[in-house]
Amino acid sequence: MTRTHHPTPRLQIRLVANKEIVIGPGKIDLLEAIERHGSIAAACREMRLSYKKAWQLLDTMNRHLAAPVVNTATGGTQRGGATLTDLGREIIYHYRQLAADLTEHASGRALLDSLATRHQAESPPLAESKPDSDSEPD
């Protein structure tokens, strides 16, 4: 997924396996959009995401997880559709719950507050701090 601009600092969670992001904020957003619309194509339109890219994201999840996250029905006169599997719904629930827990945890709050304070104040760095380079480490 493309990187997005976040007006305020926030924590993000990614589950990585074999150098691939199996679950992350974009994939969770995609699953939620599919749940809302009952359609991968409609979810793509809402998210301004290509249909091909959506299938790549779903394929990554399906290859690494114990079971598929989406059930699909082919089109035709009855039109196609997509619904989340129980695993797909569970992943959304646990991901959102973990994100909320991290944000509310004292360490999560401390990290967020340290960034928010620096961004809100927009003050120059302290005289003692000397940046080693133009870029900050991840």
Put simply, the count of helices is 5
Largest sheet: 2 strands, antiparallel
What is the count of β-strands? 4
Q: What is the distance, rounded to the nearest whole angstrom, between the alpha carbons of the first and last residues?
A: 18 Å
As a percent range, the share of strand residues is: 5-15%
> What does the overall shape look like?
elongated
What is the residue-averaged pLDDT?
A: 82
Structural class: mainly alpha
Rg, rounded, reads 19 Å
The low-pLDDT segments are 126-138
Layout of helices and strands, plus pairs?
Layout: E1 15-17, E2 20-23, H1 25-37, H2 40-47, H3 51-64, E3 70-73, E4 81-84, H4 86-104, H5 106-121
Antiparallel strand pairs: 1-2, 3-4
Written account of the structure:
This protein has helices spanning 25-37, 40-47, 51-64, 86-104, 106-121, and strands spanning 15-17, 20-23, 70-73, 81-84. The strands form two sheets. A two-stranded antiparallel sheet has the order 1-2. A two-stranded antiparallel ribbon has the order 3-4. It is 51% helix and 11% strand. By secondary structure, it is mainly α. The two termini are 18 Å apart. Strand 3 and strand 4 form a beta hairpin. The chain is built from five helices and four strands, in the order E-E-H-H-H-E-E-H-H. Helix 1 (25-37) crosses helix 2.
Task: Label this structure with key terms.
138 residues, mainly alpha, two-stranded antiparallel sheet, 5 helices, 4 strands, elongated
